[in-house]
Amino acid sequence: MEASAAAVECNENLNDMATVEVRSIRKEFAETCAVDGIDLLAKEGEFLVLLGPSGCGKTTLMRMIAGLEQPTAGDIVIGGKVVTHLPPRARNIAMVFQSYALYPHMTVEGNISFPLRAAGMPRDQIERKVAWAAKMFGIERFLNRKPRQLSGGERQRVALARAVVREPVAFLLDEPLSNLDAKLRNSARDELKHLQRELATTMIYVSHDQAEAMGLGDRIAILNQGKLCQVGTPQEIYRNPVDIFTATFIGSPPMNLLEDKDSYTGFRPEDFLPKEIGADGNTVSFPFRVTRVEYLGADRLVYGAIEGRTAATHVISKMPTMLRTEVKAGQLYDFSVRQEDIARFDRSTGARLYGARQ
After folding, report:
1. At which of 239, 262, 297 does a domain end?
2. Distance CA 280, CA 83 (A)
3. Are strands 273-274 and 352-355 parallel, antiparallel or unpaired?
4. Cys-Cys with 275: which of 12, 63, 334, 347 at CB 3.0–4.6 Å?
């Protein structure tokens, strides 16, 4: 069989994608609850990102889906089948780790072909599938090298090739780009998204990097302290956060918050601008004392405090450099926010009350 025919054969198998669901899943370690009653569904062919700070439970949740950890309570369902008590090899999913977990004594070819050899696949089929996967990731010339002879980006591609060649119904990726430098990480994100679309398969991706999550995810699941805070598209999460944690975790800089008597007023830095810019009469104005201006190429970050309140309230404005309006440290300006860009949060619970545009 020619390499092109092998590619067709592999793609047909990889299109057998599946939903991945966790139902009231819980995981306890001694007296610590790492995952606390989460319900979540990754749709067929979806790129779902689990996002949250270190210790939020996202990797533990991923390991339970993979079968590497047994849940304390709840069920894991893959393709409509309950697999909670099945071993990892019986779940037909592939996991790519942060460390890539390559065998250092094996060549690239040996690493990619290992799961196929372990499954007893005939040699000619193994050769075809390894050639197909290596070509997909552009690592054909590295097949005879050992992992130590490869760069971080090349090792990452080998790990992905080893996952793809198994023809899983879903991929689990645990921060596979975190060991790469910034420039390579950006290009690798593009490659991952292209791969997911080409294979049309379900992917669940763990990350603590909000830019990575916003750029990759069809939907994002925000986790904090073992609980699921919000699930939605990147736009939904950004424009309509359900609580203060999500509002301040997503966004760089994060959402500004003003403390009121019973609630918090929140608005994004890019929505907080000099009043004369785009004012339409439906705005809320604030006296803004600038303390520092930071130039970041396309944008300026303007730091300062809103005056006239009982306590100093420090906020940030994100102004496009193309706006010629001058702002200087030490000066008082009239800045405003459109009503439709304001959100309000309950002061005691942190939950969203209303506001922010769709």
Report:
1. 239
2. 56
3. unpaired
4. 334
End-to-end CA distance of the chain: 52
* pLDDT for 193: 84
Which band of pLDDT confidence, cut at 50, 70 and 90, is reported for residue 118? confident
Enclosing domain of residue 105: 3-239
Residues 148 and 208 in one domain: yes
- Extract the tokens encoding 154: 């090349």
Coil/strand/helix, residue 73: strand
Strands 283-295 and 299-306: antiparallel
Judgement on whether residues 280 and 183 belong to the same structural domain of the protein: no
Cis status, amide bond into 168, omega within 30 of 0: no
Number of folded domains that form the chain: 2
Residue 17: count other Cβ atoms within 10 Å of its Cβ.
21
* Chain segment 8-17, per-residue pLDDT in tens: 344 444 445 6
The two tokens of residue 310 are 């009982």
Secondary structure of residue 77 in the 3-state scheme? strand
Q: Which of 190, 207, 239 is the last residue of a domain?
A: 239
273 and 176 fall within a common domain: no
Contact yes or no for 187/222 (Cβ under 8 A): no
pLDDT tens digit string along 188-225? 788 788 888 887 889 999 999 998 999 999 999 999 99
Is 211 within 8 Å of 53 (Cβ atoms)?
no
Sign of the alpha-carbon dihedral angle for 324, 330, 331, 337: positive
Token output for 191? 């490659």
Give the pLDDT confidence of 98-108 residue by residue, as tens digits: 777 889 999 99
Element (H, E) at 265: strand 263-267
- 93 forms beta bridges with 170
Looking at residue 280, what is its pLDDT?
Answer: 64
Let me know whether 105 and 163 are in one domain: yes
Check whether residue 265 and residue 188 sit in a common domain.
no
Lowest mean pLDDT among 31-45, 171-185, 311-325: 171-185
Comparing CA positions, the residue from 274, 267, 254, 270 lying closest to residue 317 is 270
Report the CATH number at residue 90.
Answer: 3.40.50.300
Structure tokens at 112: 């990619």
Q: Are the C-beta atoms of residues 191 and 180 closer than 8 Å to each other?
A: no
